[in-house]
Structure formats: C-alpha cells, structure tokens
Amino acid sequence: MKEFEKTKLNRIKRGANRAVYDTETINSILDAGFIAQVGYIYDGYPISIPMAYTRKDDKIYLHGSTANRMLKAILESGKTSINVMHLDGLVIARSGLHHSVNYRSVTLFGELKEIIEDSEKSKLLGDIVDQMIPNHWETLRPMHQKELDRTIVVEFTITSASAKIRAKGVNDEPEDYELPYWAGVIPVKQVLEAPIPDKGYPSTINIPQHIETHYNKFK
Questions:
Q1: Which of 48, 115, 176, 209 could join 94 via S-S bond, C-beta 3.0 to 4.6 A?
Q2: 121 and 213, same structural domain?
Q3: Band (202; pLDDT cuts 50, 70, 90)
C-alpha cells in the first residue's frame, strides 16, 4: 500500500491514532466530495475559502476568475495547503467535554502552476463540473472563448498529505457509563432534494436522466 512519507509538515500529532497516510484512503475522501478549503495569505492575513475541485491522480484542479485574488496569491507563492472534510456523525456524550463528531478529513500540501492551453483548460473545467454531477459537462452548451479567457485553471500537485478519521462511538469516563444521561451517535449524511427546473425552456421538458440518476443516488 502506497503511503505519503511522514514529515514535520504532514504528521498528525494530536489524535495520532486517527491518522492515515495511505494514498488510497486519501483519494477516496477527496473523490467523495467536490468542495475544498484552500488557504492563502493576503495582505498578511491567513485566509481560507471554499473552492470547487476535481482530482486526477496526484493532482487537484481549481478554477476561478482571472481577478480572483486567492488564485493569484497561491500562484505567486507557488504552494498552498488544501483541506477536504466530510461530517459523518454527531457524537453525543454524557459530559460536554466528551462530545465529538465522526468525520473524514484530508489535508494536502503541494505546488502549483497555471494551466494555459485552452483545450486543456476546457477539459479540466469539464472534469470539475463532472465531479459535482457525473456526466453533466457534455450536456451543456460549449463555453464561449471570452468565458475561457477570463477563467484561471490551477494545477495543484500533491507533494505531501495526511488524513484524519474518526468513526466510532462515545468515549466517556468509565464511571459515567451508569449515569442516567442519554449518549450515542447521530449519523449525518448529505442528501439531495428533488430537482427544481429553472424558468423558461427547462420548465417544459423532463429532467435529464443523468441528473435523475444522481438525485436518486443521494435522495
């Protein structure tokens, strides 16, 4: 099993028993979502913002406007960190101190470059859309050149990473287990509600099959 080398940068110290470094687990967490928190420094302030992404092998791709200050900042620095997290459960303990959550979280470190070639940019933008809804890009109108011209696509190569996972029940003090307080886990999942068509032409036609399939998978 391939693992990321444990370094001063990616090693998990707090809760080390929850640390995972193998690429298969890390990639599965990345592929389960499409929104990442991307960190950067602007005017001396550390900032993180959510960004849509797609993963291809050891690379993450982001996109935004050519005026996007975050993308400009990370391209100038040449490196950044990215976090993806999924909330899986609320852990309700007998004391406030032991309340927790079940989760899957990945933190990535890496280097960046801008994708310049239009055909490659367009392909990657399609991959980002398809990470949100599979098989969707090919059902859309082609991008106008002016749209492509004002869009930055950034390639983030993962050089180091680690995951942290909690997937268990309550961890109360031994003497508290006989106390008359409810404790347990409330599972959390993200669901989709029925698609609502936009005004105009969409309101007169059936919902596309690939959208119905995606909705039925997560409803």
A1: 176
A2: no
A3: confident
In degrees, rounded to 5, the angle at the alpha carbon of residue 140 between the alpha carbons of residues 135 and 146 is 130
Regarding whether 194 and 176 lie in a shared domain, the answer is no
Q: Are residues 176 and 129 in the same domain?
A: yes
Q: Which residue type, as a one-letter code, is found at position 61? A: Y
If asked whether residues 49 and 142 sit together in one domain, one would say: yes
Residue 1 has pLDDT above 80, yes or no: no
Q: pTM for this structure?
A: 0.93
Q: Could you tell me if 207 and 135 lie in one domain?
A: no
| Structure letter (DSSP) for residue 73 | H
Q: For the CA atoms of the chain, what is the radius of gyration?
A: 21
Structure tokens at 217: 């998978």
Q: Which domain holds residue 109?
A: 16-188
Residue 15's pLDDT is what? 87
DSSP string, the chain: --BPPP-TTT---TTGGGEE-BHHHHHHHHHT-SEEEEEEEETTEEEEEEEEEEEETTEEEEEEETT-HHHHHHHHHSEEEEEEEEEEEEEE-SSGGG-EEEEEEEEEEEEEEEE--HHHHHHHHHHHHHHHSTT-GGGSPPPPHHHHHTEEEEEEEEEEEEEEEE-------GGGTTSS---EEEE-----PPP-PPSSGGGGSPPPHHHHHHHHHH-
Q: Is residue 7 part of a domain?
A: no
Say whether both 174 and 152 belong to one domain.
yes
How much is the pLDDT for 204? 87
